[in-house]
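re: ur msg from earlier - yeah i can do the molybdenum atom complex, just paste it... oh wait u already did. ok heres what im feeding in:
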Amino acid sequence: MLETTHHRICPLCEACCGLEIKVRDQQVISIRGHAQDVFSEGYICPKGVALKDLHEDPDRLRTPLIKRDGVFVQASWDEAFAEIERRLPPLIAAHGRDATAVAVGNPSAHKIGLLTYFGKLARALGTRNVFSASTLDQMPKQLASGLMFGHWLSVAVPDIARTDLLLVLGANPLASNGSMWTVPDFKGKAKAMQGRGGKLVVIDPRRTETAAMADAHHFIRPGADVFLLAAMVHTLFTEKLVRLGTVADWVQGVEAVEQSVAPFTPEVVAERCGMTADTIRQLARDLATTERAAVYARIGTCTQEYGTLASWLVDVLNVLTGHLDAPGGAMFPKSAAFGANTSGKPGTGKGVVTGRHTARVSGAPEVYGELPITCLAEEIETPGTGQVRALFTVATNPVLSSPNGPRLAAALDKLDFMVSMDIYLNETTRHADVILPGVSPLEDFHYDVAFPQLSWRNHARYSPPILPREADQPEEWQTMLKLAAIVRGQGAGVDANALDDAQFAEDAQRMFGNQAEAIIQATRGLRGPHRTLEVALRTGPYGDGFGTRPEGLTLAKVMASNATGGIDLGELKARVPEMLRTPSGKIELAPPSLLADMQRPAADLARPAPGLMIIGRRDVRTNNSWMHNLPVLAKGPFRCTALIHPIDAKRLNLQDGAMAHIANGPRSLQAQVQISDEMMPGVVSLPHGWGHNLPGTQLQLAAQRPGANLNALLDDQLRDPLSGNAVLGGVAITMHALEAVPA
Ligand SMILES: Nc1nc2c(c(=O)[nH]1)N[C@H]1C(S)=C(S)[C@@H](COP(=O)(O)OP(=O)(O)OC[C@H]3O[C@@H](n4cnc5c(=O)[nH]c(N)nc54)[C@H](O)[C@@H]3O)O[C@H]1N2
Ligand SMILES: Nc1nc2c(c(=O)[nH]1)N[C@H]1C(S)=C(S)[C@@H](COP(=O)(O)OP(=O)(O)OC[C@H]3O[C@@H](n4cnc5c(=O)[nH]c(N)nc54)[C@H](O)[C@@H]3O)O[C@H]1N2
Ligand code: SF4
Ligand SMILES: [Mo]
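and the outut:
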C-alpha cells in the first residue's frame, strides 16, 4: 500500500508545532515532530501524537444531531439547517436580536475557518451578548496591551533566543507549552539560555515543572502578583534604576507610574506576597542590571481580581528596565498575515476604548466587543427585555470551563433554542437542540491567524488537509455563513460559496477602493479563508503587494514551503514606534483607567491570608476539558488530584490518595488528595476541565475516570472589573477528609 508523508501544524495548543504525519490507506500510521520545520524544529509533545486518536475517536461526531423529544438523533446537514431555520428566526422576530447570544471557545483559535468567519455570525446576530473563553483566560493581558500599545494583539513576548534573564510569573510552559507566547520547546530554549549563563526565575505558588528547572523559584501567595510587581517598580524608582533604553522617546506617563506605586514599598507588600522585602528588591535589581532580560507572565496573573493591573505592571517593568523592544528583552513579533499592528498608518491609531455597551444584568462593560462569559448564566435566567433565549456555542464547553458550571448548566436548560458547533456530545452540547460537528483537523487546511503575532520567531507556515472530509460535510466557514444567512432571514437554502463571493467583493471594495476589481481578479479560483489568507499574505509586511514586490510572499509560495517546514522570516526585530497604534503615537505607560484601578489593591494591602486557597494546574497530557477521551492521553496516573503541602495535610488530617471534601461557601466537590511539598503551604492545586460524570454525554473513555470539576467550586460573580476576566485562583476554601463528613 502506498504510504504518504504530510506536514501539518498541530492545532492542539499555542506552541503550533510542525508535525510529520504518515498515512497509509486513509489511516494515520504515525505522527512525529517535523525535524525540518523552520519554527518548531521537530519538537512535539504527547498531545500532538493524540491527533490520531482524536481523528479516530468513535465518540467524535461525524453527523449533525437534532434533539427530538429529549433524545438526540442523527440528521443530515440539510435537516439540521432546516431545523435551525424553523426555530431561530421566529424567536428573533418575537424577542429581538439581544435575545440571542453566542459563545466561542479555545479550539476556534486553531481553526482558520472558525476564527476568520465567526465574526460574520456574530455580526448577523447583531447581539450585544458575545462571549468567549477570553474572559476565562487572557483578557487582562489583551486589555493592558491594548491600552499601552494600541492593539489587543500587540503583546510583547520574551526574545528567548537572546535573553540572559527570564522572569516568569504564573505560567508553567513545561506543562502548557506556552501561552500568549508561541514557543515550541520552551524547555530546550530555556536550557540553551542557561547554557550561555542566563537565568530562569519563576514566581509561582507551586514548584512547577518549570520552577524545578529554574535557577530560582519563589512562592507567592495567589493573587498577590500586583503587589509584588508594584513593589518591584517602586524599587526601580527609589534605587534610581529606571532606564528607558531605546524606547525612551516614545514613552509617556513615567511620573504618573511612580506616583501610583508609591504605597507599595517592598516592606508593605512582603507579607501579602509571602515573600521577603529583600527578595522583592533583588528581583527588581537583577532585572534592571541585566543587559538582556525580560518579564513574562501568564494565566496565573490574569485569572485573578487584579489581572489587568498585574498584566500592565509586567510591561511597565519591561519598559522601565530598558528591555521593551530590545534584543533579548520583550519584543513584538511581526506576522506575515493578519497582523494587527502592521495594518493602517504606522505609529498611530485609534487605540482602545471599552464599555461601549454593558451587560444587561450586571452592567459589566464590553471589552473588545465581548461581555464576561461569567455573565452568561444570569443573562439567560433573568427575565426582561433582552433576556437571552437562544444561544450558539462554537467550540466551547463552559459547563466545565467556566466558574459555577452547575448554575450555567441549569440555565442552558431554560433556553428556548441552542445550537452547538462542536465535535463532541459533552457537558455543554448535551443542552443543545442541534449539534453541528466540526471538521477533523486532519481533514482541514490550516494557517495560524493569531499565533504568528505572538511567536518567538517570525515565520509563515501553511498546512494542507491530509485526509478527505466526510461526505457532504461542509467546511466550518461554510457552516458559519449558512448560519449567518439563516439569522438574516436569507434561508437555509443559500449557496455559501456565492454568499462568500458577494461578501468578499464588498469587503474588497471597502478595503482597496479602486484596486478592488484587480484584487478580485487576482484571487479568482480561491474561496473562503484561502482567499482571505491570500489577500492577507500578499498585502502583509512580507507580501508581494499583488505584484509590486515580486520577491514577496504569496499564498502559493507559502503553500509550496510546506514540505520543507515553512518559511522562516527571521528573529524578532525592534518595532517601536512603527507598531504603535495609540492615538498619541506613544507607549502609554500610565493609562488613566489603570491608575484609577490601583486604588483597589492599595485598599487591600493588609488582607490576611485565608487558611487555604485553591489554584489550578495543567498537565502536558490534558487540554482544558476536551482531551480526556483520547486513549493515548488518558492512560497513566490519575491527574485530577488536589495537591496539598504536608503541613496542611497533617493539620487537616488528610491522607495521600484518600478523598477529601473541598468547599467554597455553598459550593463543594470531592477530590483525591495528593500530598506534595511542591505546594506553597496554605495553597491547594486542582486542575480544571474535569467532571465528566454528568448525564447525557457521549464521552465513553473520559467518563471512566471523570475527575472533579474545579469550576463547580468557583464563584461566577468574581471578576477583574476592568477586563471582565473571571477569577479562577486564589479563592478561599475549606477542606476535610471525606470520612469525617457528618452523616
Ligand atoms: N478553573 C479554571 N478554569 C479554566 C481555566 C483555568 O485555568 N482554571 N482555564 C481557562 C482557559 S485558559 C480556557 S482557554 C478555557 C477554555 O474554555 P473552552 O474553550 O470553553 O473549553 P475547552 O475545554 O477548550 O472546550 C473546547 C470545546 O471545543 C470542542 N472542539 C474541539 N475541537 C473542535 C473543533 O475542531 N471544532 C469545533 N467546532 N469544536 C471543537 C470540544 O469538544 C469542546 O467542547 O477554560 C478556562 N477555564
Ligand atoms: N497540557 C496543556 N497545555 C495547555 C492547556 C492545557 O489545559 N493543558 N491549556 C492551554 C491554554 S487554553 C492556556 S490559556 C495555556 C495557559 O498556559 P500557562 O499560563 O502556562 O498555564 P498553567 O500551566 O496553568 O500555569 C499557570 C501557573 O500559574 C500558577 N498560579 C496560580 N495562581 C497564581 C498566582 O496568583 N500568581 C502566580 N504568580 N502564579 C499563579 C499555577 O500554579 C501555574 O503553575 O495553556 C495552554 N496549554
Ligand atoms: S506542544 Fe504538543 S499540543 Fe502543543 S502544538 Fe506542540 S505537539 Fe501540539
Ligand atoms: Mo486558554
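cool cool. The first strand starts at residue 3 and ends at 9. ping me if u need the other ligands too
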